[in-house]
Amino acid sequence: MARIGILPLGRPTFDVPFAEENLLRMLAALGRTGHEIVGSRSLLFDAAQAREAVTALKAAKPEQILILQVTFTDASMAVEIANGFAVPLSIWAIPEPRLGGRLRLNSFCGLNLAGHALGLNGRDFSYLYASPDAAGIDARLAELLAGDRRSKPVPLSPPPEARGPGAEAVAAIRGARIGRIGQPPEGFDTCHYDKAKLLALAGISVEEMELDTLFAGAKSVSADEAAAIRGDAAALAGNLDTVDQDQLDRSLKLKAAMEEIRRKGQFDAFAIRCWPETFTEYGGAVCGPVAMMGEARVPCACEADVYGALTTLLLQKVADAPVFLADLVDLDEADDTGVVWHCGQAPVSMAADRAKVSATIHTNRKMPLLFEFPLKTGRVTFFRLSQARGETFAVIGGGEMLDRPMAFTGTSGVVRFDSGAKSVLESVMGAALEHHMALAYGDHRDSLRQAAGALGVPVLEL
């Protein structure tokens, strides 16, 4: 038996009591393994707590490190932990019930971010995504701690032939401009980029601005401009009166400011640092305005994800339709489905029932404007221009959006991937992919393969 050092990670903006309940169940399952378990039994909410726990754990001389990814966190703590120990590293993340309420843990997204960052750092790791109460959990934990669930690089196909509509789409977006407003949040390695590489890849230029540029523009928007945008928003969701009106007004003014920035800079897409400052410093969500911009074919990537903006821009051109840049937040092998989600910034044309689109508030930050609805049924294509493990390639997949109840508040859809949930999990973790994937309705995989050929990049079939 080995000495296993545990570090349970959490973030206080999620459901802490629910996280603590799950942590207790995780600890109980680990207690049945027969290994010696050392380390913190309490959630570590910030870098200072994590560093203190790491220091204490080093004195115990663990033979393995197990990160308990109890809620979403950015990847910074996982990378620091990995750098602090020269022993095998594992991450255990847990699903939560699809009950139609808020994402209480969002554990999978934390695992996704950590996996990508560790891949960029060349750090091997093992992973497990399973409930502590799942059937067979003891056997799966035994495999994890024996090193039998390692993240394995996924083979890529060579760049396809550059031809057809996909190559035409690449030619059409060359010369496009992306406006990056603010910087990626700390620990979001998934959203970093290199200007020179992007220009060489797709002929795309980026202009970087501070968030204050957006906020100052919004504060100068006239009452008449804000009223006109409110009319547009009311045509999408009839319950605007149910949210805080001052916060709603500030939110809507962000759209006017983005439109003005776009006009002056001739931007084709944006990558926006959407939190926390839009809430903590400005006082209104940018999610609803982003949904409206996306519907108008000006894609806006969250968390200042420049490659996400390029991805949506190219998929939009291929599909000739609005695109949703989503998080993959759950994979259920037994049901063979996944859930794609974001807080409420999807184009409303993707709603299952346009008449039931609802204005709402951000689940963690409690401010409007967001649009809430389940995604409509139908064929969907997934796409990402990835920089995982330091290599540029195209991720292309397909699936069927199912007629299921809304899994989580915001915008979400239950999808059955063509390759199956188990295969998608292995690909996401093995390739150490980014957490954002773009989706559009219809089957556009052949054209996207052609586009990959025009860009000269290999392909991972998701």
Distance N to C terminus: 37 Å
Oligomer: single chain
Instruction: Please identify the structural class as seen in this structure.
Output: alpha/beta
The percentage of residues in β strands lies in 15-25%
Treating each run of at least 4 consecutive H or I residues as one helix, how many helices?
Answer: 15
Mean pLDDT: 96
Low-confidence stretches: none
Specify the CATH architecture of the largest domain: Alpha-Beta Barrel
Task: Name the strands of the widest sheet in spatial order.
Answer: 10-11-16-15-14-17
| Helicity level | 25-40%
Number of beta-strand segments: 18
Shape: globular
Specify Rg, calculated over alpha carbons: 22 Å
| Major β-sheet annotation | 6 strands, antiparallel, barrel
Counted up, domains total: 2
Please write the CATH class name of the largest domain: Alpha Beta
CATH fold description of the largest domain: L-fucose Isomerase, Chain A, domain 3
Describe the model.
The chain has 462 residues and is an alpha/beta fold. The chain has 2 domains: 3-145, Rossmann fold (3-Layer(aba) Sandwich); 164-461, L-fucose Isomerase, Chain A, domain 3 (Alpha-Beta Barrel), CATH 3.20.14. Helices cover 37% and strands 21% of the residues. It has 15 helices and 18 strands. It has helices at 16-31, 47-59, 76-84, 107-120, 137-145, 164-173, 195-202, 211-219, 223-236, 245-265, 277-282, 287-295, 306-319, 421-430, 445-455, and strands spanning 3-9, 36-39, 64-69, 89-93, 126-129, 177-181, 205-209, 269-272, 300-301, 324-332, 337-342, 358-360, 370-374, 378-386, 393-401, 411-417, 436-441, 459-461. Strands 10-11-16-15-14-17 form a 6-stranded antiparallel β-barrel, surrounded by 4 helices. Strands 2-1-3-4-5 form a 5-stranded parallel beta sheet, with helices on both faces. A hairpin with a 4-residue loop joins strand 10 (324-332) and strand 11 (337-342). Helix 6 crosses helix 15, helix 9 packs across helix 10 (245-265) and helix 10 packs across helix 12 (287-295). It is globular and about 65 Å long. Residues 342-460 form the L-fucose isomerase C-terminal domain. This is L-fucose isomerase C-terminal domain-containing protein.
